[in-house]
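Module 6 notes. Inverse folding takes a fixed backbone as the condition and produces residue identities as the prediction. Think of it as a translation problem where the source language is geometry and the target language is the twenty amino acids. Below is one complete input and output pair. Work through it position by position during the lab.
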């Protein structure tokens, strides 16, 4: 679990985070809603509000290209505001990693451009080594 766990998660936030932590891969908001209907979540807005706060707390990341969410697997993501993912297009596996050198170059560029960076998500798409060797 992230080092930035908010000490006062609401019931809905805790349920949403738990569903993402238990998942084998990224989940859409509607997939989360389907998983949590028996726990009292009935409306997409309930899930989206919980996801918004969990992203803000650094506990969850949104994968833009998949319009899905994953629980953070790095304890310091909230510190650097950057997340990087390798997404296998064959099996759907998502690996979170921290490419410090690339992040440094991007932050240098934004500084030189006078661009105020509020966050950064890097998504690499391709095939993982398991899918490459299997096929």
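Target side of the pair, the amino acids:
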């Amino acid at each position: 679990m992230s080092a930035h766990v908010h000490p006062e998660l609401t019931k809905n936030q805790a349920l949403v985070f738990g569903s993402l932590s238990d998942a084998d891969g990224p989940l859409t908001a509607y997939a989360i809603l389907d998983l949590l209907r028996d726990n009292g979540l009935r409306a997409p807005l309930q899930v989206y509000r919980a996801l918004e706060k969990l992203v803000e707390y650094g506990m969850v990341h949104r994968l833009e290209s998949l319009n899905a969410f994953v629980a953070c697997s790095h304890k310091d993501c909230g510190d650097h505001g950057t997340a990087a993912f390798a997404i296998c297009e064959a099996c759907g596996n998502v690996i979170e990693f921290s490419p410090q050198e690339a992040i440094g170059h991007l932050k240098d560029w934004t500084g030189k451009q006078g661009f105020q960076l509020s966050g950064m998500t890097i998504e690499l798409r391709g095939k993982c080594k398991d899918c490459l060797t299997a096929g």
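Reference fact for the lab report: The domain at 11-128 is CATH 1.10.10.10 (Arc Repressor Mutant, subunit A).
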